[in-house]
């Protein structure tokens, strides 16, 4: 290509392998660590840092993933048509690195936290920075995706076929290694607390380490520059295929009249411009691409591991005894199972099926993979139903719910609306009471007051502190699960003087008498709360799980320093009781489906593709992933179901329907041997060229005959042209 100088390096060979592949493998490991590490914590960043609801967080997550799988087509065209693979990888890696750095900066809450309360004051700034970072990352990771593996293959000569095959095995191992390690490490980094003025979950570190790995990936790749074989861009076959298909459609439309004879295949209308071998190759590609049409539905389910399933894990118990699992770490189950299931499938399951003489064709395997993914979502729905049973029931738009606390030193009979309850001193009713409208509150039958309870569609806690007005104080309760599996704890000070309460390095602040403290998120474990009244101190201990909320009542008679028995915990939200281990079956099914569907699908596509058009089918495969993610964001935003389990069932039902359609299409598919078809056209080509040559020779001889005739007999000038019309 003009302007591009092809460079063949003097390869240094070690153990039969060019040393240049070392730089490529290390680059791929670091890049995959960077991508999957950032992606592992992304949906929780949206939910807890940017404060988006689950549906919108899911929408933006899948929009980003869709972009990551659309941009490889752009990267392939740029590499093959203009810049070449090396320059494309370098330039887009720079874009990629900038994107990761921008993401890390966007997660620093102190940048706009002017009042130092731990919450950014200008969330628009952080959102804008995040979106810029994600767009740059999508351009970078997608753009280099089709280039790196192919560039690695370019480092080998034709007589190093075995070494090239081993390289690809090591290359894909580095992808899985980077993915596995990053999905373990970055959630741990996110769970740390960091900050300049206030300590918050450390998203800057969780995004910063992947950014650092991307810097390493870029440096390593550039360092190996002098050792690479850099081939000149030869033109993109995808562009050529698209032009051929476009011409065939346009030509067919131009000749749509019945006066033109029909042709065997609609691609035959490209014969006026393209040779028959290319048209035959495009026919093979189109045949496989037609089978790709139902495939996006599989990816619509598969990629929800990083969104809906991660959000599901936030409402579960991650205590595995010997270690605590973060919700986003459950994604590591997938790469672990892949490493285990691929060899089991290849060396045990498939050979066993063959021995049973079952015709388990690639398309049948893919159908089974889709069915397994649908089963995974049915299991996820069953798990969600169990989770929903443990979730607090928050009031509807026309209702409110209230819990009463007796702060008197005597038993109290409370009549509120149609409820009658009896409260011992310094205790609360166990369950929230639901009201449709304000009611009259009766205390010990003879004292009443018109109470503005509930206050709108809210969950509230009413502290009864006397039998004469003002009788009560009303406080707003949480109406969602505490963030990130933490426990939302607050204190009500019924003591006669101001108190200061701390837990670890967190401070509840100064709590004046007859008032409620701010809520503090306390991690799981045996929490020790230190209570000071200015001169005395006592310690209250409570075991906490994941996702609970308590109001701790300090009575007027609290004895210092022994306050363990006198402080009364009032449960606002139950802890997560469904264990994360119940997600393992759905991960097993979706991963088994991936191994059977994805690996087989790529093998099938390559076996049915012409030798020079495998990249076209790879682009088509990546496009199905992008469309699958678009399906998810569409359903999340358009079809908003009240129950998450119902959405899981909807996706499972859609995939089962698509699975049936795909099985029907696969039944009528005829397997071909592209090499044989190409060989047949290769044999025909010399004969056609020979016929064309003879035809041209005949034309030349006729032309010479008449030219000679003109020179010898001028009287035939008027007659000869009429005799030679062809």
From TrEMBL:
Entry annotated with the keyword Chloroplast: no
Family indicated by similarity: Belongs to the major facilitator superfamily. Proton-dependent oligopeptide transporter (POT/PTR) (TC 2.A.17) family.
Basic and acidic residues bias (residue ranges): 683-702
InterPro entries: MFS_trans_sf, POT_fam, PTR2_symporter_CS
PROSITE patterns: PTR2_1, PTR2_2
Skewed-composition ranges (Acidic residues): 715-726
Keywords: Membrane, Peptide transport, Protein transport, Symport, Transmembrane, Transmembrane helix, Transport
Region (Disordered) location: 683-726
Gene Ontology MF terms in the entry: symporter activity
Transmembrane parts of this sequence: 12-36, 56-77, 89-111, 123-144, 165-185, 205-228, 284-302, 336-354, 366-387, 587-607, 619-636, 648-669
Record membrane topology: Multi-pass membrane protein
Domain of life of the source: Eukaryota
GO BP of this protein: oligopeptide transport; protein transport
Name by which UniProt lists this protein: Solute carrier family 15 member 1
One Pfam family per UniProt: PTR2
Compartments, as annotated in UniProt: Membrane
Glycoprotein recorded as keyword: no
GO CC terms, sorted: membrane
């Amino acid at each position: 290509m003009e302007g591009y100088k092809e460079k063949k390096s003097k390869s240094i060979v070690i153990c039969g392998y060019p040393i240049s592949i070392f730089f490529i493998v290390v680059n791929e490991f670091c890049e995959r660590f960077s991508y999957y590490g950032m992606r592992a914590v992304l949906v929780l960043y949206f939910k807890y840092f940017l404060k988006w609801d689950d549906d919108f967080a899911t929408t933006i997550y899948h929009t980003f993933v869709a972009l990551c799988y659309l941009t490889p087509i752009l990267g392939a065209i740029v590499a093959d048509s203009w810049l070449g693979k090396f320059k494309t990888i370098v330039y887009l890696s720079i874009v990629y690195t900038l994107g990761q750095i921008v993401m890390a900066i966007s997660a620093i809450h102190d940048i706009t936290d002017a009042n130092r309360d731990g919450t950014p004051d200008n969330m628009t700034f952080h959102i804008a920075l995040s979106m810029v970072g994600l767009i740059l990352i999508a351009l970078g990771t997608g753009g280099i995706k089709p280039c790196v593996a192919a560039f690695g293959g370019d480092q080998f000569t034709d007589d190093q076929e075995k070494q090239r095959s081993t390289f690809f095995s090591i290359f894909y191992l580095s992808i899985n290694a980077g993915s596995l390690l990053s999905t373990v490490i970055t959630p741990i980094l996110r769970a740390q607390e960091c900050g300049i003025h206030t300590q918050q979950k450390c998203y800057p570190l969780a995004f910063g380490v992947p950014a650092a790995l991307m810097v390493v990936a870029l440096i390593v790749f550039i360092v190996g520059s002098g050792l690479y074989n850099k081939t000149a861009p030869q033109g993109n076959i995808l562009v050529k295929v698209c032009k051929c298909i476009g011409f065939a459609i346009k030509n067919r439309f131009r000749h749509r009249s019945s006066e033109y004879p029909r042709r065997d295949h609609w691609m035959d209308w490209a014969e006026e411009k393209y040779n028959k071998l290319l048209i035959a190759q495009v026919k093979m590609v189109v045949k496989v691409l037609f089978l790709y049409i139902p495939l996006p539905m599989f990816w619509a389910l598969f990629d929800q591991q990083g969104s809906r399933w991660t959000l599901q894990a936030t409402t579960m118990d991650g205590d595995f005894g010997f270690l605590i699992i973060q919700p986003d770490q459950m994604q590591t189950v997938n790469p672990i199972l892949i490493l285990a299931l691929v060899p089991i499938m290849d060396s045990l399951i498939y050979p066993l099926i063959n021995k049973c003489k079952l015709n388990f064709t690639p398309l049948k395997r893919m159908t089974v993979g889709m069915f397994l993914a649908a089963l995974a979502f049915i299991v996820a729905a069953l798990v969600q139903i169990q989770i929903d049973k443990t979730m607090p029931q928050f009031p509807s738009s026309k209702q409110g719910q209230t819990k009463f606390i007796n702060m008197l030193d005597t038993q109290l009979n409370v009549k509120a609306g149609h409820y009658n309850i009896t409260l011992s001193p310094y205790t609360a009713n166990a369950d929230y009471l639901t009201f449709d409208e304000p009611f009259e509150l009766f205390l010990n039958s003879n004292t009443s007051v018109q109470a503005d309870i509930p206050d709108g569609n809210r969950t509230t806690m009413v502290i009864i502190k006397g039998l004469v007005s003002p009788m009560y104080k009303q406080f707003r309760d949480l109406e969602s699960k505490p963030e990130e599996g933490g426990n939302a704890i607050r204190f009500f000070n019924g003591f006669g003087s101001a108190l200061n309460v701390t837990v670890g390095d967190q401070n509840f602040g100064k709590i004046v008498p007859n008032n409620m403290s701010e809520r503090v998120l306390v991690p799981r474990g045996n929490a020790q709360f230190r209570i000071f009244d200015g001169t005395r101190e006592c310690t209250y201990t409570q075991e906490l799980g994941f996702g609970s909320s308590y109001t701790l009542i300090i009575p007027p008679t609290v004895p210092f320093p022994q306050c363990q028995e006198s402080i009364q915990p009032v449960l606002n939200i139950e802890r997560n009781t469904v264990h994360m281990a119940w997600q393992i079956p759905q991960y097993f099914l979706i991963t088994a489906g991936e191994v059977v569907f994805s690996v087989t699908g790529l093998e099938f596509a390559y076996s049915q593709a012409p030798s020079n058009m495998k990249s076209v089918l790879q682009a088509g495969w990546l496009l199905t992933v992008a469309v699958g993610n678009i399906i998810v964001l569409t359903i999340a935003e358009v079809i908003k179901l009240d129950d998450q389990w119902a959405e899981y069932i909807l996706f499972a039902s859609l995939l089962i329907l698509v699975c049936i359609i795909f099985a029907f299409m696969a039944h009528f598919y005829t397997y071909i041997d592209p090499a044989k078809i190409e060989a047949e056209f290769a044999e025909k080509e010399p004969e056609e060229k020979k016929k064309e040559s003879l035809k041209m020779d005949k034309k030349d001889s006729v032309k010479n005959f008449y030219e000679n005739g003109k020179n010898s007999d001028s009287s035939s000038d008027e007659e000869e042209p009429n005799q030679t019309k062809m």
